[in-house]
């Protein structure tokens, strides 16, 4: 009996195992078939690789969800738990872990979803069927091809809870969106949506922290248009010299300037308007009328290379009325006494986009700007005030502005401005006008820039038609004491001028009307009453110290720094009386034609430089005088900063006030560079022509003056003679010397017949690789312009003698 019982138990257990095994084997296909059928009824495609039962629930593993009508969406879930009733109807769905893959533009996806909903079968997704509560967590979202050429958009740790037909709660650990140098990063966002009348509405939007960044360098690289090739110089024959004692400005019609590419704003203006309008329309559908979305912790950041400027965190509010979507950003805390509010108003249908910035004074620290951002210092003491409006027209091509802004007690360290930290900056701006973003028009109706006690007023308009420019500009600096203007400079801006006191007054009123299609019709007026003079200077700046030997630092032939001794009594010093008059003639022709008539600044040369730079639509000509060059050589280094320009101007005044013209020339010719490691007229005459400064011929003097803008480039052939083209250029200069009565007919004939030969052909200067890249010498490329001697290098770079980008007229 016991044996039979045991056999029965074993048989029963075996049968149970067999039945369970059979059920288990058939469970997965049955469940997967049922899930797929129910999904198809709702317009989905669902497949699962694994399935197993539980108490009151069914588990699915490695589930893939697709929507045939929306090919841009694909959801992969690692595990799905379905709570089911005894009749296997689904009561609740929970998904854990996985990846949502999104591909395509938002408009494209929206159209696909709308088509899917409209085509859903009765009882499907589009019908008013009973909604099943759904929750998901641990989902990674990857969105590709959101914009052409854009990076993938990401969200990590996405969770979803949908408990009814009217609401869905979304949360994530981190969301990061990127596009063309822009990045939005949101930490722990929470979004609650509801549906009303077929529209999805935002009930709540919050985040632990949000940061919007823009990489300015990447934006510039993307928007930069290809540079237009520079026009080839004319090779027309030399023009005859006019009866006024100077050569005509050009041997023929001026070459047309290079065509100007459309500015980046011509593209991004309409794009910005379209993007904002699209955002407004989407917001109008998502935000109830009179509703507001409030985000309390938004930070804005701008990056450029290793510099970073941030504003915030601040409160961002998004709301709408019947016609506009309104975005307001207020950096700082809610108890900030003088907030600075930025409001952006975007039309829902048609009209301009308007931005208003109002508020202050508020400290930079309260705005969220960190110490050291873009070189800013003392952000807790500096404050800002602003009141202004920008309006972007409906077509995105017209930007109008009207407003004012001020910064007080600002401190900054920017090497491009000054090598040392600056403090006490009091800067203001105001103006109104209009800009056409296609680059065809720029208008300033009333503009003013203020720095301390100095005020500069600007008005006018510039129009562009293809590659041509025309316009009218007016600039005015009201009468002010010279010392007040000097004192307006920030502390630390020009430390070399500490201890300098100025007397007198200065003012400026200038206007210009120009049209690059009719260069010769350019007209301008200027009034620059100036009786500025130095009243006191520290001993280190006193020009009387140059009457005795002094030491200075220069670059040697190997471009390494070295110290040399200069001044009367030193071995290489040459007094003015020992220098050939031809050298003075050469300097007047090649460098500064009005040297004996100006007081350090050549107003006519400045006006001509401004005219030519406008007509050529680039930096073409400087207006530096011999006195200004001397100030640089005696006092200043080679760094290019705004501070150096102020120091140069004051020191030029000092030299002109303290020394005679002959003393200035003597100093200049003894300190200027004539070649690698060759400083002063004495070593130059010996090196090039085995001569002394007093015995230099007209041709030799003109050669030495002609290489001053770039003394590293020499113009001798293999036989030691000056090349034919450079010699032809020197002959043109000789004729100018005769026309201005600096030489006689006999002198001219002798100069034209003189062979110009380097003293020792076997030791000809070697043209270094960098200089060789400047291009072949072409002294006959244009007519000689005897007009102050300020010309442009072939490559537009500063020359060895620091001419602000100048070169002999032959190089034009």
- Largest sheet geometry: 24 strands, mixed
Uncertain spans: 5-25, 122-129, 223-254, 761-800, 804-812
Count up the helices: 15
* Distance between the first and last residues' Cα: 124 Å
Helix proportion: 10-25%
User: Over all CA atoms, what is the radius of gyration?
Assistant: 39 Å
The proportion of strand residues reads: 35-45%
Shape: elongated
DSSP strand tally = 30
What are the SSEs and their pairings?
Elements lengths: L1 H40 L3 E10 L2 E10 L6 E12 L5 E14 L2 H13 L15 E11 L8 E12 L2 E5 L2 E6 L2 E15 L2 E17 H8 L41 H22 L5 E13 L2 E14 L3 E8 L8 E8 L5 E11 L12 E2 L5 E10 L5 E15 L9 E15 L4 E11 L2 E12 L2 E14 H6 L13 E3 L1 E11 L7 E5 L5 E4 L13 E6 L5 E6 L14 H10 L12 H14 L9 H10 L6 H17 L2 H11 L1 E3 L2 E2 L1 H9 L8 H9 L17 H16 L5 H9 L15 H4 L40
Parallel strand pairs: 4-5, 10-11
Antiparallel strand pairs: 1-2, 2-3, 3-4, 5-6, 6-7, 6-8, 7-9, 8-9, 9-10, 11-12, 12-13, 13-14, 14-15, 15-17, 16-18, 17-18, 18-19, 19-20, 20-21, 21-22, 22-24, 23-26, 24-25, 27-28, 29-30
Features:
single chain, 812 residues, alpha+beta, 24-stranded mixed sheet, two-stranded antiparallel sheet, 15 helices, 35% strand, disordered C terminus
